[in-house]
Design brief:
Length: 328
């Protein structure tokens, strides 16, 4: 894999194509181009039988330039670097920064290709591709392009780690309608890769994502809860709401319609068990059991290693409506 850094300091992991796949793609392209060249030459030869030798020679040079050189240039420009051979082999021509190529890139590649591929039967292009660390021929070097592999093995998707048990259901009253899809995607990507990051860098990313999530929702996490645990709990709450919409229906979930078991849809989805309407039950384990359970769930630990910081008490004992513990 070749790591390229763009102007925005974004590292691109590109997989350069090597000589065997590029040679196969070039052979397919040349076969198609020569077939088109021979067909056009026969048609033009029949139409120019009455012309003199100078005109026939001029037409032959024009056909060579238009078909054998101009054809690949036009195809690469219109297809953004995917000719027929590259499409069959899963390759694409891109710029050094990973962006799509333009006409000037295809023009330089086509002009150099006439020398290093057509006139030398591919010898110069093969040697340059073997010497280059990224498998580039001379046309790629002068044009500032790179041939990459688009078809790569798909990695198995990694599930988002579950939140600690003492945070499950604590955000059932949180308004998530203002959170954009881009932020959800960034949070999911962080949670699935946080164990691969440096602890300092990962903590900084988690803090920024948590701050942006707090700005969107307007409610801060409970005091002492790690940012990563807060993100995992909010993502879990959103997944629970999506599941309720699938099984209960959006209208039943919004109006609090009862589900099988006698409990309201909101209570059944957040608490994880149904009960009589109006009953109050803890959202998670409290006391010393909470710290022990939270330490081994999804890699998150209970803050301070003590009792549940946001455990709900009976009605009127100071617990907030959102399930957060009061500051201090």
């Amino acid at each position: 894999m070749s790591e390229l850094v763009t102007g925005d300091a974004v590292v691109l992991g590109l997989r350069p194509a090597r000589l065997p796949s590029r040679a196969l793609a070039a052979a397919i392209d040349l076969a198609v181009v020569f077939c088109v060249f021979m067909l056009v030459s026969v048609l033009v030869g029949i139409a120019s039988m009455t012309l003199d030798e100078a005109a026939v020679a001029a037409i032959a040079v024009a056909l060579f330039l238009l078909v054998l050189i101009g054809g690949p240039i036009a195809v690469e420009t219109l297809s953004h670097g995917r000719s027929l051979g590259k499409l069959a082999c899963g390759l694409r021509v891109v710029r050094d920064d990973g962006g799509p190529i333009r006409f000037r890139h295809a023009l330089v590649r086509g002009a150099m290709g006439a020398v290093e591929i057509l006139m030398t039967f591919g010898v110069v292009a093969s040697i340059a591709s073997l010497v280059s660390a990224r498998g580039r021929r001379l046309g790629d070097v002068f044009a500032g392009t790179l041939v990459i592999r688009e078809r790569v093995a798909v990695k198995r998707s990694v599930a988002v780690p579950p939140p600690p048990p003492w945070l499950v259901g604590r955000f059932s009253q949180l308004d998530l309608s203002a959170v954009p899809d881009e932020l959800w995607l960034a949070i999911r990507q962080y949670l699935t890769r946080m164990h691969q990051l440096d602890p300092v860098v990962g903590g900084s990313i988690a803090g920024r994502l948590a701050d942006e999530l707090v700005m969107r929702t307007g409610i801060a996490p409970p005091q002492g809860v790690p940012a990563a645990a807060f993100l995992a709990a909010v993502v879990h709450e959103r997944q629970a709401r999506d599941a309720r919409r699938v099984f209960v229906g959006a209208r039943g979930a919004d109006t609090g319609a009862s589900v099988p078991g006698g409990g309201p849809a909101g209570v059944a989805g957040s608490a994880g068990a149904a009960g009589p309407v109006g009953s109050v039950r803890p959202v998670g384990p409290v006391g010393p059991a909470a710290s022990g359970a939270g330490a081994g769930a999804g890699g998150f630990g209970a803050p301070g290693g003590g009792a549940d910081p946001g455990a709900e008490g009976p009605e009127g004992t100071g617990g907030s409506s959102s399930g957060f513990a009061p500051p201090g």
